[in-house]
């Protein structure tokens, strides 16, 4: 695992020495938007018109951020319009690789490259920073549109509606303020919170992450006792952004990242909500426990030096959810 520095790959783990053992996530560097007419989005350059077959998505089935984009690709009927390449679940000294010796790892379907970093370098030969998934690639201009999942799901939510005819809306105008409020807490303490707990290299940094994480799960359990979804009676992006962390929680984060005060199955409302989302059409096919078990337990040998992949909990995601 490493990063690019002025176009050169350096094999180095996250630097937590300079931050008292705390994991600090980098901000994403490519922030353009695909839009219905190609006009610029909220950030970056314009010129990325939503068109069938024009864009290619690089993802890992292990990664919760990339998983969001795969869910939106399914929900918004984009499967026939945006092709996907899936990296190998092991992320080792070369970062994400396009090896195909794992079921579901497709290789690079566009260029036949060996490493994801080569895709970044194609877009920007002097790129610096972490080489992360997801990446939305524009085949027409040969550029990376975006490597920020939060933006990509909003593009998928509406930009391609004219292409697909699917106008389902997971970011409705009247709920946006509430969605942002929920997202902010969920991102900091849950989505990123599990990483902050798991990658901490001091007791203080771990404590500082794990306590707010479980406070937030209690808060969410309360919200879901009142309402069917996080922001009321409509399913929104706030739910999907939380879901990809929750589906990895018991098998991975509870053990590997030491988030073990409770399991998701111990929260009746949260567990029912999670099963409902899992059982929505097409969603289960986006969930790949073999990839996430292999990725986390095998790649992070500083956390799990013998790389033993645990058996994982026996949980029935297809049981009736009772949320109707
Ligand atoms: N803010 C980014 C974060 C993406 C991210 O951190 N992806 C992880 C995989 S779960 C990654 O590719 N990490 C590689 C690295 O940090 O070197 C997003 O949401 O799109």
From TrEMBL:
InterPro entries attached to this UniProt entry: Glutathione-S-Trfase_C-like, Glutathione-S-Trfase_C_sf, Glutathione_S-Trfase, Glutathione_S-Trfase_N, GST_Omega-like_C, GST_Omega/GSH, Thioredoxin-like_sf
Gene3D superfamilies (alphabetical): 1.20.1050.10, Glutaredoxin (3.40.30.10)
GST C-terminal domain location: 172-296
UniProt keyword annotations, A-Z: Oxidoreductase
Example of a GO MF term: oxidoreductase activity
Enzyme Commission number(s) of this protein: 1.8.5.-
Principal EC category: oxidoreductase
PANTHER family: GLUTATHIONE S-TRANSFERASE OMEGA-LIKE 1-RELATED, GLUTATHIONYL-HYDROQUINONE REDUCTASE
Name the record gives this protein: Glutathione S-transferase family protein
Organism: Paracoccus rhizosphaerae
């Amino acid at each position: 695992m490493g990063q690019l520095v002025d176009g050169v790959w350096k094999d180095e783990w996250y630097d937590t020495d300079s931050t008292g053992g705390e994991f600090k996530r980098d901000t994403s560097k490519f922030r353009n938007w695909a839009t219905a007419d190609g006009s610029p989005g909220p950030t970056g350059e314009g010129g990325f018109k939503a068109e069938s077959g024009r864009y290619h998505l690089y993802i890992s089935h292990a990664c919760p951020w990339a998983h969001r984009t795969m869910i939106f690709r399914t929900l918004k009927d984009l499967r026939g319009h945006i092709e996907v390449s899936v990296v190998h679940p092991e992320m080792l000294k070369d970062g994400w690789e396009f090896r195909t010796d794992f079921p579901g790892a497709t290789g690079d379907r566009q260029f036949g490259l060996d490493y994801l970093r080569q895709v970044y370098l194609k877009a920007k030969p002097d790129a610096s920073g972490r080489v992360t998934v997801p990446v939305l690639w524009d085949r027409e201009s040969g550029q990376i549109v975006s490597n920020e999942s939060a933006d990509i799901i909003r593009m998928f939510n509406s930009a391609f509606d004219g292409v697909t005819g699917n106008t389902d809306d997971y970011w409705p105008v009247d709920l946006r303020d509430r969605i942002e409020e929920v997202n902010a807490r969920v991102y900091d303490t849950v989505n990123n919170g599990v990483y902050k707990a798991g990658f901490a290299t001091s007791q203080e940094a771990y404590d500082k992450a794990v306590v707010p994480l479980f406070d937030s799960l209690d808060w969410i359990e309360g919200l879901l006792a009142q309402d069917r979804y996080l922001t009321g009676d409509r399913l929104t992006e706030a739910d999907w952004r939380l879901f990809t962390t929750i589906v990895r929680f018991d098998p991975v984060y509870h053990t590997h990242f030491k988030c073990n005060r409770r399991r998701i199955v111990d929260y009746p409302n949260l567990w029912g909500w999670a099963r409902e989302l899992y059982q929505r059409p097409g969603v289960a096919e986006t969930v790949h426990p073999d990839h996430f078990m292999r990725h986390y337990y095998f790649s992070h040998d500083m956390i799990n030096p013998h790389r033993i992949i645990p058996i994982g909990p026996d949980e029935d995601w297809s049981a009736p959810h009772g949320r109707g």
